[in-house]
Task: inverse folding
């Protein structure tokens, strides 16, 4: 707790903060919370909004816990972060310093601060290939400070992505009298003018 003569901490001079965060995937396009094997998009944009409903927060930190399979490729502008690796758990923690002090929302029309992290998903399936029981990857975020926090329940959030190795696609053609069901991996874009012969697609099912 920070205890000193500070008009922003009330008459008791003890700052009690109420930090909170919200975390969302703000990637362009309809990517959802699924990562496909060898998909054409290999980046996710994770945006974290941090606010404070209490008194000033001092020495505030944002902590992100990520698996090795999801690497942060770009940090938000002006944000300084330290990285600690856990080779046993195969994850790492980014600890980022926020503005200090972090004021309450009502002061000087202060609005929640947003930070967007760019995550590279190229290696998302590297552990799944070794162990097919791994079907998800999760990012954990937490905001803390040197103060007592009035409500710790809204300081944390997690974002989980499902790993999918293939997609099911229904293809209809005017020259055929049936719909062909194909369950091959279509998570990569098909190049223009690339011809797919119906004889290679698989068994036919009539409607």
Result:
């Amino acid at each position: 707790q920070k205890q000193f003569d500070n008009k922003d901490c009330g008459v008791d001079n003890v700052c009690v903060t109420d930090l909170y965060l919200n975390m969302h995937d703000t990637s362009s396009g309809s990517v959802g919370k699924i990562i496909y094997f060898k998909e054409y998009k290999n980046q996710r944009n994770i945006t974290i909004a941090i606010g404070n409903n209490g008194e000033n927060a001092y020495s505030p930190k944002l902590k992100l816990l990520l698996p090795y399979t999801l690497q942060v490729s770009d940090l938000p502008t002006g944000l300084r972060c330290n990285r600690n690796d856990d080779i046993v758990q195969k994850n790492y923690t980014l600890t980022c310093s926020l503005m200090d002090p972090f004021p309450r929302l009502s002061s000087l029309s202060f609005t929640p601060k947003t930070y967007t992290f760019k995550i590279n998903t190229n290696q998302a399936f590297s552990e799944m290939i070794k162990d097919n029981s791994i079907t998800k990857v999760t990012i954990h975020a937490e905001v803390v400070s040197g103060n007592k926090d009035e409500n710790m329940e809204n300081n944390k959030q997690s974002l989980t992505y499902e790993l999918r190795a293939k997609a099911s696609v229904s293809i209809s053609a005017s020259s055929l009298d049936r719909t062909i069901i194909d369950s091959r991996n279509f998570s990569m874009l098909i190049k223009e003018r690339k011809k797919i012969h119906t004889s290679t697609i698989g068994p036919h099912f009539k409607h």
